[in-house]
Design goal:
The protein has about 450 residues and is mostly beta strands. The strands form 11 sheets. The chain has a 4-stranded antiparallel sheet, with no helix packed on it. It starts with a helix and ends with a strand.
Length: about 450
């Protein structure tokens, strides 16, 4: 009998100890994930990123309803393959929702909201300083000029530090304190361009690319360009020599006393750059499978620092000079469109541009015009999808892959496979997720 009682007591003690340990772990996790946002204490649920990474989002589904300010309609959307998110304002506060889970309430507006498979992030102001949220972690405070970069595998923050009086950076939690001039991030690469003083008190540039250091390079005209397939460094080695390092292979170009600028990558075997000529015209150099082709001259400029855009497209390139657009591809050697070109876009499958005629706005995608509209915003070309927000007859609408969505609220968001939009119904906010057309 005594033996049985002792056994029962021993088991009870073991169960009690297990419950105490479980409670301690629960409290520890709760404290670890507690954030003090805008003088308001919020407990944010701990998120297992790896599990979310493999969890398919519900395609062709609608989420909501959410209470929001349907007069101001301040709504921001973002989507990736396995996660979606929305930020909306209600009663003077801003709510952040990721995959239907509340991630925080903020007294001030949320900016640069983005969701990827592994990360979500945004910036917000608090007590006159900038703060950045990456997943459930806060970074800051930062003084000024805060820029946020997020991909599926990397995240970065570039910011100005008043104490040292130069830009610094953070990438995936690692701090870079030198004179940072550029941060670039894709799913495959992260890169930082920074400078240090040499013995002659001049500045030399270095590039940190996926933790590998390149340089030194002359301070002027050192740039980094990356996408998911490739990376490119262009710099001046001598007065008359411009150099491109593309995926580790060197290309030397004799351009005289000028420089390559605005280089752009389409794939691991196609890239190009534009550069100003001595005749005050623009030229383009393209490489495909290591073979070089030269194009130009195009237009005339009074100052080479005038705003221009250059993009390598699926079949060629586009060069935007502001008052004219040069399109060069397999079908046309060089088509010049004279109009007020606001900006150009390209993805793996599509190319397009936003232009104006008088007060009317238009969008062109793959050679087809859409419009006129009173206002156009958030023009996106990503993977197989494309779309934009627009205003027509005073009504906010969205065009997604050629189809009109009415009662639009917030921005359109597109990734390689999916899109998300917000819409209003009976004063409530809903989020619709769909699949891009193939």
């Amino acid at each position: 009998m005594n033996k049985r009682i002792n056994t029962v007591l021993a088991i009870s003690v073991i169960i009690l100890i297990a419950e105490i340990v479980t409670l301690a772990i629960y409290i520890s996790n709760g404290v670890k994930n507690q954030h003090n946002n805008q003088n308001q204490s919020l407990t944010v649920a701990n998120t297992n990123t790896q599990n979310q990474e493999n969890k398919e989002i519900d395609i062709y589904s609608t989420h909501g309803p959410y209470d929001f300010d349907n007069v101001k309609q301040e709504v921001s959307l973002s989507i990736s393959n396995h996660r979606w998110g929305v930020v909306f304002e209600n009663l003077g506060k801003y709510y952040v929702v990721i995959n239907s889970e509340n991630k925080g309430i903020f007294n001030n507006r949320v900016f640069d909201f983005k969701v990827t498979d592994k990360f979500y992030g945004f910036k917000y102001s608090k007590d006159g300083k900038w703060h950045v949220r990456i997943n459930d972690d806060d970074y800051g405070p930062f003084d000024d000029n805060v820029k946020l970069f997020i991909s599926n595998n990397y995240w970065g923050i570039k910011y100005y530090d008043n104490t040292s009086q130069h830009d610094k950076a953070i990438v995936n939690g690692k701090y870079y304190d030198n004179y940072v001039s550029q941060v670039s991030i894709s799913d495959s690469f992260f890169g930082i361009v920074y400078s240090v003083k040499n013995q002659k008190t001049d500045m030399n540039s270095f590039i940190m690319l996926n933790d590998k250091k390149y340089g030194p390079y002359p301070f002027s005209w050192t740039h980094l360009n990356i996408n998911n397939d490739a990376w490119l460094i262009n710099y001046k080695r001598e007065v008359n020599e411009s150099v491109v390092l593309f995926n580790g292979k060197e290309y030397s170009l004799d351009l005289g006393d000028t420089y390559l600028e605005n280089c752009n990558i389409y794939s691991s075997d196609r890239w190009g750059c534009k550069y100003p000529g001595e005749d005050n015209s623009w030229y383009v150099v393209m490489y495909e499978n290591g073979n070089k082709k030269q194009y130009g001259p195009y237009g005339k400029f009074a100052d080479p620092r005038e705003r221009t855009e250059f993009i390598v497209t699926k079949n060629g390139f586009m060069l935007n000079l502001g008052n004219q657009l040069i399109i060069n591809n397999d079908e046309i050697k060089s088509k010049i469109i004279k109009s007020d070109i606001s900006y150009i876009q390209a993805s793996e499958q599509h190319s397009g541009y936003f232009y104006k005629k008088g007060k009317e706005s238009y969008i062109n995608v793959d050679g087809k015009n859409y419009g006129p509209y009173e206002y156009v915003n958030n023009f996106l070309l990503i993977g197989d999808g494309w779309g934009f927000n627009y205003l027509k007859n005073g009504k906010a609408m969205i065009l997604i892959n050629g189809e009109i969505n009415q009662n639009a609220v917030g921005n359109i968001s597109i990734d390689e496979n999916n899109y998300s939009t917000g819409y209003e119904k009976e004063g409530k906010l809903y989020v619709k997720i769909g699949k891009n057309k193939k």
